[in-house]
Structure formats: structure tokens, C-alpha cells
Amino acid sequence: MARPPARNAVGRPRRSSRRVLEEAAAELFLEQGYPGTTVDQIASRAGVSRNTFFNYFGSKSDVLWVDVDAALAGLERALAAAGDAPATDVADAMPSLQAALLGIAEERSNGAVPWALTQIELMDTAWELQASGLERLLRLQAVLRVSLARLAVRADELTIRSAAAALAGAIVAGAGAWAAAGVGRGELGDYLRRAIAPVVDGYGRALARIDGPSSS
Amino acid sequence: MARPPARNAVGRPRRSSRRVLEEAAAELFLEQGYPGTTVDQIASRAGVSRNTFFNYFGSKSDVLWVDVDAALAGLERALAAAGDAPATDVADAMPSLQAALLGIAEERSNGAVPWALTQIELMDTAWELQASGLERLLRLQAVLRVSLARLAVRADELTIRSAAAALAGAIVAGAGAWAAAGVGRGELGDYLRRAIAPVVDGYGRALARIDGPSSS
């Protein structure tokens, strides 16, 4: 268990250990790449013990996903709130999801690009990153599926599952394109809106057919 | 290196070592689960050496994906052939992909459910399975993206990427629902058609707008 090294004392403003660990990890990933960085190095740079690292994160890859995980949690809360509203027309289900998604993107529009998205080219080669990315993709799909099942009660399971999977795929593609666009990339929300609009359109029409003609 | 055990001699018709390894693996996965089965056990059951196993498969998980990998290779060939045809209207790009996909599903309609799809509930817990599944998902996305970029030359990168990702998501959802439906599940193609139709519809409309009004 490494002891806090002296370098940590050099005038950083006090922040939570979690934030300090995130920043230490980000520095190290930038300096020497993700695969070459160990949890011990991150803890040492942050001036905390390895045990402290594992109090905050389950694994090295978790540090990459902090912003994504926060966005996922925010989306889940927003969709749960939407689901508590009086039942809407099934045809409104996809636009409701879209609104919740774009709301989360806007909330986070001042944030940096999540580290995980800057490492996307590594996803092809780093097994651990792949698995950690798939874990988030599956969580995103599950959040969308649960919400869609509640918003579109008369829709069949296959339509709901495929809509959630298609939407999750388009979201990841949009976020990835945004991250890859470099400085001056503009707003995440604009990328997401363009990426998911055809999914919202296509499944929106499919759900409207299930629901039949409506006056809303 | 295990030697071929006597049990292998008991009257199995001669087949390629690859097929025998697949069947041995399938038996063992069924008997004792995927996580509890080792490469050594598979080789031993098949009556071949561990080295022979690795002549045919890169890892234990590869055995699960044999049918999926064959379908992916078939899809890649079918789409390459479609891309060699004279350039079509951009609005035809999504229907062309759909036709190629459903063609592959039909070709394989007499096959058993791929082992990987029967293990989908394990995907949440088994890291190696997750990574091996993501590898195939990324390959499917890449095949669709390359093909779509060729079929819809004037479409922007973001639309192409998100269409490929959404389509891949819907395909996996459709195939998963088919596998999960149990005996009497019917045709894979019917599930895929229902799962992907809204994606084909939504991105087809988006691409048609890029292309402008057309007489085709």
C-alpha cells in the first residue's frame, strides 16, 4: 500500500479523493496510455493508498467511465420521472426518450469529453476496456428498454427490445463521433439529435401503428 | 497435452476435427456450463490435443461463435457482391442491406441456434463472453458501415455510423429474441425483419432526404 507521496502536497486545492483519483488517472493515461497505467500508479499519483482507490472504483476501467456512468444515472432518473407522469400515447414514447436523452446531454454540455470516449480506438485491442464498454452499453439498453416498456405498454417485446438496442447503438455512434471530432466539436446534443432522429422516427412510426390512429 | 482418450473411438462417424471439437464443446457446455468447461476438457472429449484445439480456435469463446462468425462472413460476402453492382439510389441503401441480411438468415434457417445466443444470460457475468460478444458486434457494425458508405456515397459519416450501429443493435435484439423463444420459435428471418424494419424505415427516409427527390 503506497503512502501519499510528497508531490501531492504541492498546492492542489483540496478536493474529494474521488476527484483527485480521476485527475491523477487522466494525467497518467495521457502521459503513458491506458494499458501502461496501473492502479498503483494512479493511487500513488493521487497520494492515496491502493485501498482508497478501490473504495471509489471497482477497477481501473471504472475511472474512464465516471462521466458516462453519471450521465447514465441521470438518464435513469429522468426516465423514471417521465414514467411517473400520466400514461401517454404510445406514439409519444420515442419522442419522450429523445427529450430525456437530449436533456441529459445539455446538462452535461460543459463537461469534458469522457475519458472512455477518447480511448475508443483502444477498444478494439484492450479486452478489459471492451468488457467495461459493453457493460455500459448493456446498462444503457436496459434503461431504455425498461422506460420504453412503461411508456409503450401495448407494444410487443421484440419491438421494445430492438428499439432500445437500436437507440443505444445510435447514441454510442453519436457520442463517439462527437468525441472524435476534436477541438471545436460543438455540442454533444447536436450530434445525438442527428444520430438518433432516424431511430426515433422509425420506431415512432412502428409504435404508432401498434397504437392505431390517435387524436393526440 | 492430453492424448486422445479411448472414448473417442466409440463409433462416431468420421468428421473434421473442427466439427468434433464444436460438438464436444457443445456437450460439455450443456453438461457443466460454459464457465466450468476448460479447453483441456473440450480437447480431451474430442479426442485431440490442446494444440489441435488451438489450431482451429483462438480461445474457448470462439467455439460459441462458430455459426455467428460464419453468418458474418456470409454477410460480408453478400454485401461486397451488392457493392459491386452499379451504383444505386442512396434511398435503396437500407433496403439493400435488409435484403442481404434476410438472405443470410434464410440460408442459415435450418441451422441450430448458435451456442453463443443460448448463453446470453451469462453475458452479464462472464467477462470473456462479454468481450467475445462485443468483438462480433463491432465486426457486424463495421461490415454494415463499410457497405453503407459504399451504397450511400453522399451520406455524411454520422448518419452512416449511427445507421450501422442502430441496425447492428436491432439485429442482435432480433436474433436474441429468436434464440430465447424456445422450441417452436419459428424462423430467424421473421424476427430479424420485425426487429430491423423500423431502422430500415427511419434511416431510409433520412438518406432519401440527403439524396433529394428521386425518380427511381
From TrEMBL, chains A, B:
Q: Where exactly are the transmembrane stretches of this chain?
A: none
Q: Which UniProt keywords apply?
A: DNA-binding, Transcription, Transcription regulation
Q: Which Gene3D superfamilies match?
A: Homeodomain-like (1.10.10.60), Tetracycline Repressor, domain 2 (1.10.357.10)
Q: What is this protein called?
A: Transcriptional regulator, TetR family
Q: Which Pfam families match?
A: TetR_C_14, TetR_N
Residues covered by the HTH tetR-type domain: 15-75
Task: Check the record and name the InterPro entries matching this protein.
Answer: Homeodomain-like_sf, HTH-type_TetR-like_transc_reg, HTH_TetR, MftR_C
SUPFAM superfamilies noted in UniProt: Homeodomain-like (SSF46689)
Organism, by scientific name, is Plantibacter cousiniae
Q: Which domain of life is it from?
A: Bacteria
Q: Which residue ranges does the Swiss-Prot or TrEMBL entry mark as DNA-binding? A: 38-57
